[in-house]
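Q: What residues go here?
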């Protein structure tokens, strides 16, 4: 089994689509242009927008000599790669060192105290800002200190033992980029427009921390409905699929018939499509081997796949996870997915999950319209089959162009994003955060109310006091969507 990685890595074995000189011995090529030659041929074969780029046309060059003459116009690999992309294409990348790029996906970790926080402008002071705790990471240093979700702080004690008030021009230096390992916070109460210093101090120490995949899970007995609630805290890589499967077994043991997946603190990237299909089967389970997603490549590649391997561009609902462990399926007909709360509109992984589920069950999305990241990229190597076997050792370049889009069983895509069932605030209200996992949490309360009533016309008070939130530590962790990985068997065909 070769792994095809969408956005990061696909090991692909394919046929050359352009003129027959592709089999030319690499030794005959001038070393000055061998990387440029590889880039052009890889882009010509697989780039999703190949037919829109005149320099990638199959009829652009009538001979190898014409192609080589063209390649000499570019002094660097970066120059030719950028020239062959659509101007609007921000996803395709050139990788200078594929060894670094191809390292296994690590467990998500950081050097942190465990405090996740936001900053808003003090409405009664022109320059000052106020910090608030959005939540505390479990098993972190902060978990055992006197600070909780919804607490406020107004100043820090710096390394010189001076008390420094938080301001717009210093909060990053004091709270984000501080060099010392200990953060000393001075706490306060805040009531609409009044800051009350309470003489409490909280000292937090940064330590190496591995993020757990699940912040909390809980079951709500709502009479005829028994709702499992799972607050997910991580990416959707295979690192954590076992934890999710175990959580679903706990829900099964408690006869859960509704499911809420809270993704407001998820980063959502670094996923295999197979892994996303496994999550879909945990939610459902009644559709084994049915089509979960379809791939659509450029016209040349798609025609070849449809003729030779039509099933290879399909991902189906599985019955086991990667280690052959049986999937603990809930067999649900409805799932409720919370996205917003920290400006999170979803990721390629979450969009893929929602879109793949929709032909089969009711997917209720609470948040804002998602970003519409419906592109898959691949990493192609300079080898006869564009995989890592027999790779050209004269350089370390690989290319990761956008090569395909996704659709579900009914051919629905999400290029324009996925619209929510209920629109939520882009940022949680710092003055009304409530307790995670409790009805006092406004986002959870809205979800449970909708689950019971079916009434989507719910009024959401986003920021009734018009607080200007200028920073949130969670939002900064979600800026990079590394995309989706796919596993696919392909034949050994020459370039």
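A:
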């Amino acid at each position: 089994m070769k792994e095809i990685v969408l956005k990061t890595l696909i090991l692909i074995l394919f046929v050359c689509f352009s003129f027959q000189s592709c089999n030319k011995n690499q030794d005959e090529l001038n070393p000055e242009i061998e990387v440029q030659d590889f880039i052009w041929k890889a882009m010509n074969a697989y780039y999703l927008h190949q037919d829109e780029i005149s320099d990638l046309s199959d009829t652009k060059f009538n001979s190898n000599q014409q192609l080589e003459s063209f390649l000499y116009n570019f002094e660097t690999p970066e120059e030719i790669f950028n020239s062959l992309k659509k101007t609007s294409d921000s996803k395709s990348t050139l990788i200078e060192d594929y060894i670094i790029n191809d390292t296994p996906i690590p467990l998500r970790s950081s050097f942190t105290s465990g405090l996740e926080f936001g900053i808003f402008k003090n409405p009664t002071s022109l320059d000052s800002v106020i910090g608030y705790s959005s939540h505390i990471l479990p098993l972190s240093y902060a978990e055992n200190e006197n600070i909780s979700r919804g607490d406020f702080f107004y100043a820090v004690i710096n390394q010189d033992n001076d008390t420094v008030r938080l301001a717009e021009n210093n909060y990053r230096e004091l709270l984000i980029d501080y060099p010392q390992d200990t953060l000393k916070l001075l706490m306060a109460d805040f009531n609409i427009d009044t800051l009350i210093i309470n003489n409490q101090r909280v000292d937090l120490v940064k330590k190496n921390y591995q993020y757990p995949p699940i912040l909390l899970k809980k079951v709500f007995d709502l009479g005829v409905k028994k709702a499992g609630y799972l607050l997910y805290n991580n990416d959707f890589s295979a690192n954590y699929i076992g934890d999710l499967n175990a959580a679903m077994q706990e829900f099964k043991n408690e006869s859960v018939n509704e499911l809420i997946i809270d993704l407001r603190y998820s980063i959502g990237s670094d996923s295999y499509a197979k892994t996303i299909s496994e999550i879909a089967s945990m939610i459902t389970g009644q559709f084994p081997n049915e089509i979960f997603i379809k791939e659509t490549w450029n016209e040349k590649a798609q025609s070849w796949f449809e003729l030779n391997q039509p099933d290879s561009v399909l991902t189906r609902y599985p019955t086991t996870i990667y280690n052959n462990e049986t999937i603990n399926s809930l067999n649900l007909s409805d799932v409720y997915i919370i996205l917003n709360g920290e400006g999170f509109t979803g990721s390629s992984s979450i969009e893929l999950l929602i879109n793949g589920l929709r032909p089969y069950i009711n997917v209720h999305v609470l948040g804002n319209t998602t970003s519409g990241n419906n592109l898959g990229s691949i990493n192609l190597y300079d080898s006869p089959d564009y995989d890592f076997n027999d790779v050209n050792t004269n350089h370390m370049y690989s290319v990761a162009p956008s090569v395909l889009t996704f659709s579900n069983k009914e051919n629905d895509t999400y290029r324009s994003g996925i619209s929510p069932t209920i629109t939520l605030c882009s940022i949680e209200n710092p003055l009304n955060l409530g307790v995670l996992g409790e009805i006092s949490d406004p986002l959870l309360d809205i979800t449970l109310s909708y689950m019971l009533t079916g009434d989507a016309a719910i009024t959401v008070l986003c920021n009734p006091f018009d607080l200007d939130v200028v920073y949130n530590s969670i939002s900064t962790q979600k800026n990079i969507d590394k995309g989706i990985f796919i596993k696919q068997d392909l034949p050994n065909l020459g370039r």
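A: Context that may help when evaluating the design: Residues 1-106+211-465+475-495 form a domain with the 2-enoyl-CoA Hydratase; Chain A, domain 1 fold (CATH 3.90.226.10). The chain has two domains: 1-106+211-465+475-495, 109-210.
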